[in-house]
Design brief:
Layout (H helix, E strand, L loop, with lengths): L1 H24 L3 H4 L12 H7 L6 H7 L3 H9 L2 E5 L2 H17 L12 H9 L2 E3 L5 H4 L5 E4 L6 E8 L11 E7 L10 E11 L3 E6 L10 H5 L2
Length: about 220
């Protein structure tokens, strides 16, 4: 597992070098009740994140402050963002520091976490290409996606929830997974969305359920050093 972790971190570093080269050339219940009332936003993906109420994307924006090149991509590139909310980070940090306390280590937070490991995990949520749910509807098994910088393979599958006893009559959601390079679904870690198809000038944003732990269960493994 350690070798695989090192390999993934190397992907992030190599991707960052390539990106820099190209640039040189050129309240809790509120999350559960999140309602997608805005389908179109006049601005970039970064503008959208910053425009949301305090307590929604504060942690994500704090992390993005450490990666100006990712901020630039969220302003200019054609992307799909599976946006983690504050709760996604809070649960992951809480568990990490429980482990560290048991080991006699000092607490660790987003502002001082290892920049390469944190960056690798963040890139998983930023997908190359601007896709709405229409891109997934015809694929019953879902489709593989490619993350920004690292080109790490992620997976998304469209699902229509049931409503009022009618199968498939409810809201559309996306099941978003880290396959960990495995063809066996039992090895995957999957989360789902609370809102989909928020269209900005350069990206489509899907907002993740607050029950997801940022990092797809790798947060402690990668940052507890």
């Amino acid at each position: 597992m350690k070798n695989l972790t090192n390999k993934r971190s190397t992907f992030f570093l190599l991707g960052l070098i390539c990106l820099c080269f190209v640039a040189c050339k050129k309240s809790e219940s509120r999350y559960y009740d999140y309602v997608n009332t805005v389908q179109t936003f006049n601005g970039t993906a970064m503008d959208y994140l910053k425009a949301q109420p305090k307590g929604t994307f504060d942690s994500l924006l704090l992390v993005l402050d450490r990666y100006p090149f990712l901020q630039d991509s969220l302003r200019t590139a054609q992307l799909t963002l599976f946006a983690p909310v504050n709760k996604n980070f809070e649960g992951a940090i809480k568990y990490l520091n429980q482990v560290r306390k048991g080991q006699g280590k000092a607490p660790l937070y987003l502002a001082d976490a290892d920049i390469n490991e944190l960056g690798f995990m963040l890139c998983k949520y930023i997908i190359r290409g601007n896709r709405t749910t229409d891109a997934y509807v015809g694929n019953l098994d879902g489709i593989l996606l490619e993350s920004i910088i690292t080109k790490y393979p992620m997976h998304a599958r469209y699902e229509k929830l049931s409503s009022a006893g009618y199968q498939g009559g409810g809201a559309a959601v996306l099941n978003f997974s880290d396959p960990f390079f495995s063809t066996f679904i039992t090895d995957w870690i999957t989360t789902t969305t609370n809102a989909v198809n928020i269209k900005t000038n350069n990206a489509t944003i899907n907002i993740l359920t607050p029950m997801h732990n940022f990092g797809f269960d790798e947060f402690t493994l990668r940052l507890n050093n």
